[in-house]
Known about the structure:
Blueprint: H1 6-16, E1 20-29, E2 34-36, E3 39-43, E4 47-51, E5 62-66, E6 72-75, E7 80-83, E8 86-89, E9 95-100, E10 103-107, E11 124-129, E12 134-139, E13 143-146, E14 151-154, E15 178-182, E16 191-200, E17 203-220, H2 221-224, E18 225-232, E19 235-244, E20 251-258
Antiparallel strand pairs: 1-17, 1-20, 2-3, 3-4, 4-5, 5-14, 6-13, 6-16, 7-8, 7-16, 9-12, 10-11, 15-17, 16-17, 18-19
Amino acid sequence: MKKITPLLVLMLLASCNTVKTYYQVYKTQSQTVKSEGNTIAFEDANCKINYNLWAESGNAGFTFYNKTTEVIYLQLDQSFYVINDRAYDYYQNRIFINTDHLATKTSNTVGFSQLGWLSLASYSTNTLSSNKTSGVEIIEAKVVAIPPKTSKTISEFQINQTLFRDCDLLRFPTSRQTSTKSFTEQASPIRFYNTITYTKGDKTNKVNNDFYVSEITNIGSKEAFSQERNTFCNQKGGGIQNVFKTAAPDKFYVTYTKTQLDTWKY
Length: 266
């Protein structure tokens, strides 16, 4: 009878705790936003609104460019992010505080994360102690002024943080395999849009930029990435970087993992 040594036990535990990384990639389509190189964009006579959804959980934010020779005023109190028929306010009457030399703790209550970049899962900060404190209190503006020929970025909300599961979608595709499910606009599990209101002169304009998830793909990390040499001005350097093969401005992704204990097929 073979003896079970501590080293063998550790090796068995390590094999049971092997973790593999997978990515669920969401492709979107839109009737109002069109592909333009590294971005997708909406454009009218006054403005150009650029999107790049590619990020963990998706970035629903936008960059608003003023094409005119007058100041355009973005009305945040009349602008909304809507996902699956649930609306969220861009203007939330918040107060931002920049502080220096401050020891803090956090708790899961309603508040803010950092100036200008908010998510649905926000938090509040409670002061514990401070040797030296200096701060500036900034009240959130209802209206954002955008000077002529300039742009400002509004980024508040993520699109989706939850893994989508379906009986037609393999949860853990094998090596060199992907699993994809397509959707019509009516059957899509995620539909979202930005309602953006702005004024130029005495005229108010309202823009709706709509999206829906048209395709979801599960893929392993080895199949998701390729290795490429660093390049600048057509000159290749010595460094190697991992590049997501299917990254695009109309896509986003959710990362998930598999251990030896995961036995779900879908």
